[in-house]
Amino acid sequence: MQNNDPLTNQTLDEKYYLEERLGEGGMGTVYRARHLLMDRPVAIKVLHPRFVENEAARMRFQLEARAAVRLHHVNAVSVTDFGQTPDGLVYIVMELIRGYTLREILGKEAPLETARAISIMLQASAAVAAAHEAGIIHRDLKPSNILVTKSADAPAMVKVLDFGIAKLAADTLDGEDASATTLPGTPIGTPRYMSPEQHEGREITPATDVYSLGIILYEMLTGMAPFTGTSVVEIAMKHANDPPRAPREIVAAIPEDVERVVLHALEKQPEARPANAAEVRQELLETAERLGLEHQAITSAPNIKALRGAGLESPSGRLVVDISKLRETRATDKTDKNG
């Protein structure tokens, strides 16, 4: 594949050497590259040549970069640079993540065990919640846009990527008009994971991403998407009119409380769902903790009172914290809370 790619083994914008083509999406091609000056591996997405003369597509691609640069979260792929070459290539530079997409994992291992599915979703929804807080709606959440990394000495880390068709709230655009990049009533996304309002070209809100997260969680738990079909129209009709089959009818081991969270996220009307990713994440987190399911989500950071209670202050005023004591204190607090 890379031998037929004219950009492979070329230097982009006199800064990045494109080593290998990694994949292709709806708007761009992704390469593994190296920052020549810093000698650091990176991932670069280059806008498809057929879009080069399309001003709206170029604007959307640049909005992706600005949205991603504004988004700082451990579960979101970080963006380090973006620009346009003298010969018209538009690109965005991201951290290089080594791992597998959730689509690849589901293709081999679905359905996933409940605790694992919840752990992945808690991390993914945390990234989307941070985006919602920043005024960004992803619009195209799907398993291929979720990366899961693994290493021998660390837990699996989830990274959400591709805000290429994100919608920025008007007040985050420094006076620019985001609506110029999307025609009114034009559905954007991947049909199997799109909300009813997306299919119908209605107003998009953070609850749209909640619906997509619900579809992804449903697929992780059951091994199948709730709505499929042979055409976009057929899939859209099912999203709009058909109730999803109860997950427990497919996999009986799924806890009822978890099923309840999934079905709440899949309500047809946006106002009937959790309003944003933070709300659905909180529902899932409380459910996981109530059921005693292990997960990698960070629920809170220790406050200064907890730190002082687990440490000693040196004569110079520096606080020295006993980590084991801090862990004991937090575990006791959690036990008291769950009572």
Give the arrangement of secondary structure elements:
Blueprint: E1 11-12, E2 16-24, E3 28-35, E4 40-47, H1 55-70, E5 79-84, E6 90-94, E7 100-101, H2 102-109, H3 114-133, E8 136-137, E9 146-151, E10 154-160, E11 167-168, H4 196-199, H5 206-222, H6 232-241, H7 247-250, H8 256-265, H9 277-291, H10 304-309, E12 311-313, E13 319-321, H11 323-338
Antiparallel strand pairs: 1-2, 2-3, 3-4, 4-6, 5-6, 7-9, 8-11, 9-10, 12-13
What does this structure look like?
The chain is an alpha+beta fold and 339 residues long. It folds into 3 domains: 93 residues, 2-Layer Sandwich (Phosphorylase Kinase, domain 1); 192 residues, Transferase(Phosphotransferase), domain 1, CATH 1.10.510; 35 residues, no CATH class. The chain is built from 11 helices and 13 strands. Strands 1-2-3-4-6-5 form a 6-stranded antiparallel sheet. Strand 9 and strand 10 form a beta hairpin. Helix 3 packs antiparallel against helix 9, helix 5 runs antiparallel to helix 8 and helix 8 runs antiparallel to helix 9.
Comma- or semicolon-separated keywords:
Transferase(Phosphotransferase), domain 1; six-stranded antiparallel sheet; 339 residues; 13 strands; alpha+beta; 3 domains; globular; three-stranded antiparallel sheet; Phosphorylase Kinase, domain 1
